[in-house]
Amino acid sequence: MRKNEPIRMCIACRERELQSKLIRLQQDNHKIFPYTGQGRSFYVCDACRNDEKKIKGLTKRFRLSVEESEQFVKYLKELNKNG
Ligand SMILES: [Zn+2]
User: Fold this and answer.
1) What is the 52 CA–ligand 1 centroid distance (Å)?
2) pLDDT at 29
3) Which of 26, 33, 45, 83 is deepest in the core (most CB within 10 A)?
4) Residue 17 has pLDDT above 90, yes or no
């Protein structure tokens, strides 16, 4: 199998990783949700989505409210459960 997959950068740690290993998310209007196929998206790696400090950094960067941050964290935890 040839490794010609695109490489993308994790927004939190700036590490480059195969696109398939990253989670693609979208941010719009102070909300973060799974990428819908339209609009701006960004990537988060496995290490960062399990790193509370990194996640907090992201919620600050996107200026999420407490409620929005909780939703984001909850979403990431659900991803972990699903593997
Ligand atoms: Zn990362």
Assistant:
1) 12
2) 81
3) 45
4) yes
